[in-house]
Amino acid sequence: MNFNNVSKRIEKIKFALLSPDEIRKMSQVRVITPDTYDDDGYPIERGLMDLHMGVIEPGLKCATCGGKVDECPGHFGHIELAMPVVHIGFIKEIKTMLDSSCKACGRVKLTDEEVNTYRKTINNMSFESDDPEIIDLSLKKIIEIAVQRTICPHCSAESPKVILDKPTTFREGGIKITPKEIRERLERIPDNDLLFFGLNVSSARPGWMILTALPVPPIDVRPSITLETGERSEDDLTHKLVDIIRISQRLRESRDNGSPQLIIEDLWDLLQYHTTTYFDNQTAGIPPARHRSGRALKTLVQRLKGKEGRFRANLSGKRVNFSSRSVISPEPFLSMNEVGIPEIAARELTVPVLVNSFNVDKMREWIKRGSTPRTPAGKYLAGINYLIRPDGRRIKITDQNAEINSDRVDIGWTVERQMTEGDIVLFNRQPSLHRMSMMAHTVRVLPGLTFRFNLSDCTPYNADFDGDEMNLHVIQSEESRAEARIIMKVQEQILSPRFGGPIIGAIHDHITSLFLLTHNNPLYTEGETLHIISYIDVNKLPEPEIKDNKKYYHGRDIFSLILPEGLNAKFKSHLCSGSRGKCEYEDTIEDSYVVINNGKLIHGTIDDESVGPFSGVIVDKIFRKFGPEAASKFVDNVTRLAVGFLSYRGFSTGIKDYDIPRDAISRIEEISNETLEKINKLVDAFRSGQLQQLPGRSIEDTLEVEILSETGSVRDESGKIASSYLGLNDPSVIMARSGARAKMLNIAEVAGMVGQQSVRGGRLNRGYANRTLSHFKENDLSAYARGFIKSSYRSGLNPTEYFFHSIGGREGLVDIAVRTSRSGYMQRRLINAFEDLKVDDERRVQDTVGSMVQFKYGEDGIDPTRSDEGETVDVDYVAYDEFGD
Amino acid sequence: MSKFNVLEHEIVPEHHLVPLDEEMSVLKKLNVTRDNLPKISINDPAIKALEEIHGKLEPGRIIKIIRKSPTAGYYEYYRVIVKSVI
Lengths: 885, 86
Ligand SMILES: [Mg+2]
Ligand SMILES: [Zn+2]
Ligand SMILES: [Zn+2]
Known about the structure:
The complex is a heterodimer of chains A (about 900) and B (about 90). Chain A is of the alpha+beta class and about 900 residues long. Chain A contains 27 helices and 30 strands. The model of chain A has no long low-confidence stretch (mean pLDDT about 90). A four-stranded mixed β-sheet of chain B has the order 1-3-4-2, covered by helices on one side. Chain B is globular. The interface between A and B is medium-sized, with 17 and 17 residues. The structure holds magnesium ion and zinc ion (ZN) (2 copies). One zinc ion (ZN) binds near residues 105, 152 and 157 of chain A.
């Protein structure tokens, strides 16, 4: 036990103002020279790098404490400012004090009566335990009375209004009040009146808000760095302090030798500018101080504030070891529980293995192999990077010392072993918006340089492969490895706590593939079937159908191979989701439902509804009945079966998917002309005042609503015409109908017409004066002039249409940009509020102190992950599973 | 103008004062100490409305709130009156 680092609990923190005396008292040196080092590189005495403020160079000793580089904590120095300046952090406080106190006698402008009553209220409040916000509010109310009063109730003097000329200049009746005068005024406020500002006289006098002395932070806070060229580069704070000292010096000289007032004032303002930017270089109203290179200086506030600031980057956020980051790419032959990692990463990342009597021989063997072992065939083998002796010393294993160290290692040592297949790691993609953003995978070491995983994991991570990168963390302790395996593994995350359904499932072409395999139950020859089945992990063939002495196999029977025995389900496929009675896309009425009986697909088509993420009825049922292992095996097999079948069958899409007959095109042309005519009529009716006003709308709104409904219906109508010619033999339609990708609406836009473009839900109307583009007459309300696109994507848009389309598209982009930043900040606040809430055995939700949040988690005590899309149990399914229809 | 009672408003859940002699059994049922209960300010309009019925309420009294819950139908919640909510 180390008793030098006994941890203590902070009971309270008291904030006060630093008085000039305290600044001088804690200062080890008064800095008077704006220079840093002399020509020999030795710190100049009484300069900004004076040795009294600490040492950063090895070999030198601190002039204050005598400590060497690692021993001296650094010490403060100080600068005596030639003239006082305002502290930018207290501008608001200074303003209210000037506003509420009398210029002549210094009293707060409250009558004796008010002083007595309010003093009582304030004395009744506890500054230690009451809500600071409430204290603040009541104080503000009192002070406001004094601010509003122009005549002093004590000496009857009139105080003119004080105006703050941002950021730091105070004016009274147009005349500037110098910081010196401000300080005098603030100091004139009697101690008894300071209570009303919430000030405790013993620790904060108002005059201290005006700076006369400035603390110089220890050198350790603003170290200088030596560049490769041997050139010294100073910290931004040092740069700023140089400015302050230089100007202060000049100001002192000018004042002492009686320079003209104008010059003194200019220098004083400059000193104010430098001290202000020393505190906050993003003060509104003044240009930020810059380097010669043009880069804005990072001063005190900038060190603390924002994402890159001390709080969020260094205190709330930490960097970790044993992690790596790489581009991701897909690998359908990996299980959803696996992750492929490149050899270069596997050799760098290590797992600590404590040597014990059971593994000591094996470890000696491993160490002997060195740090880059391979099988004779050249395959990757885990090597050893480091040995850690029981005393904590590390030994790096090289091919030269492997032999010797193999003999030295003994029980109690730790061996840092490289990654090997089967190790468990955490895999993460940012933004980590839900718990499935970080899941545990088992390792496969693969050639190449990217991380690889099964495509069904794309949905929980929200990943694609257009250059996305992901992070991987190697778990270092036995306990956390066990936790990761039991609760973080991908298969344990198949059901989402967000909606109680599967979030993992087949995507895109995998859905297309199973759709084609099962729709109308096609037949495949024995050869074809064997080829397809060779991709999946089964060792039996389905029942064949014999035709002309040849064996044929049904698509649905092939799919049934990957269903677990005992699975029952009946549901509507995505394809038939809208239909009542017989589904129009299926040949028989039975196929309107997907029917699975004891692990055999009897009727219906497999598509998004069966295996897709978010819906995935089959994945859901398997998970609930057979558990995570079976569900993950099913999804793995879906991936491989889908890839196997689709790569055999072939599937492609192209512009010809959207070819519709000439008839259809002219029919669409016709209805769009009719609509244009109707809109013209509506506009005419509007102009002649004949338009029937809708209840609750202005006449202009009525016109817009009517037109929007016309343009909407003509788009739908043309979509219907177009899709009536595009059946299920059309690849694009297959993708849309099976839920693999895109909607029928998108197809209608390509083949039929794009339709009305909108900004904020209305037709386009801004741009030039009273018109969207100079191509139209002013106040033209017709369809074309307001963003109607009658062309299809396939036929191409004319220039004005293209422009309108870009306007509509831009809104979407801006929306996304705005939404992500806003919801990101909301998410951050929620996470910070909830991060250490805990559900106990009694399902009560408490915080770390034991304060109760909910007496029953979620008010019903139900884990949404295990609920059936939010409902406790799906009684209908349980009955169906037990007794059938 | 007649005084408006917030407790009669559609979206304000039912607030009830837990009688003194039932307080111990409520705390026992919830398995929680009084200072770990969720809090409600003495200045809360609902407390003001309850004071119309029960007379002045002191900090430390327990309030039972019955509210509609999308998951559980109705849900009983308890709060302890405090001088100010921190
Ligand atoms: Mg991407
Ligand atoms: Zn020192
Ligand atoms: Zn006065």
